[in-house]
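Troubleshooting log. The previous structure file for this entry was overwritten by mistake, so regenerating from the original sequence record. Sequence copied from the archived sheet and checked twice against the printout by T.R.
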Amino acid sequence: MSVREALAPGIVLVTAVHPGKRALRKADRERIVESAAARVVDSLDLDTQTAVEHGNENRWDYLLGTSQAGLPLIAVEVHPANTGEVKVLIAKKRAAEAVLRSALKPGQTVKRWYWIASGKTVITRNTPESRMLDAAGIRLVGSQLHLMRDS
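Regenerated output below.
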């Protein structure tokens, strides 16, 4: 499934969808590791596209369409992985969900929300922060997202 196919007709975000990982900042492209079985079909820089309307509010980075059957539409945030940032990430996800509620076609949803650490990961399993992320449906994957392996 592609991002383009998931977006509702007439939604202005469609014009900002790019093939493959082209919508990602160059440094972030290398953080998404594709495999023969799972590739990025297209991408949307959700942060940039919602900046004017949502200003200084929390904004999620990217929406990716993948060739992976079980995870056709995923969201990716590249952000420092410190314990103090967990609430920020949860707020970013909620804000993105609000935007996408009206932008996606009925029945289309983001299947997985990934947090890629932009530096050292300080959050470990079985901590209050990791439980908060689990409850919010956000998966912290370290410094790279390996499609298929991290699914």
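The first strand starts at residue 18 and ends at 19. Archived copy saved in two places this time.
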